[in-house]
Design a protein that fits this description.
By secondary structure, this protein is mainly beta. It has a single domain, classed as Nucleic acid-binding proteins (OB fold (Dihydrolipoamide Acetyltransferase, E2P)), CATH 2.40.50.140. About 5% of the residues lie in helices and about 60% in strands. The protein contains one helix and six strands. The protein has a five-stranded mixed barrel. A hairpin with a 2-residue loop joins strand 2 and strand 3.
Length: about 120
């Protein structure tokens, strides 16, 4: 039997301050993350694109997630969550990320520790 997974990993910046909202199922924190990509095309011209992802945080991480501010670089891991809604009798489908792991990225720290000096 095959095992399929619904996993997503994104790294980007918050597009706005996180919003904490109480619901019947418990508190939820919502925010969006911009993932920027840049590359050079065949002619050498710099190209760029930004993709936006809506993120929902439930459970124990809501307290931390509610402190996140616009522009904060983050790593989000979780699952794609499809949702449907109806407007004027037309059904629409959207997708968001249900975060299971959130981490702030601190660019002020070096990515790797320096090698020890030779004696």
């Amino acid at each position: 039997m095959s095992s399929y997974k619904n996993n997503v990993h994104i790294e980007g910046n918050l597009g706005k301050d996180a919003e904490l909202k109480p619901t019947k199922s418990g508190d939820v924190v919502n925010f969006s993350v911009a993932v920027n990509e840049s590359w050079k095309d065949k002619s050498g011209q710099e190209q760029s694109n930004t993709e936006w992802f809506d993120v929902q945080v439930w459970g124990p991480q809501t307290k931390f997630a509610a402190t996140l501010k616009k522009g904060t670089p983050v790593i989000i891991e979780g699952k794609i969550k499809p949702e449907t809604y109806t407007v004027d009798g037309v059904q629409h489908k959207t997708f968001s990320i249900k975060a299971e792991y959130i981490r702030k990225i601190d660019y002020s720290q070096p990515a790797d520790a320096p090698a020890p000096a030779a004696k």
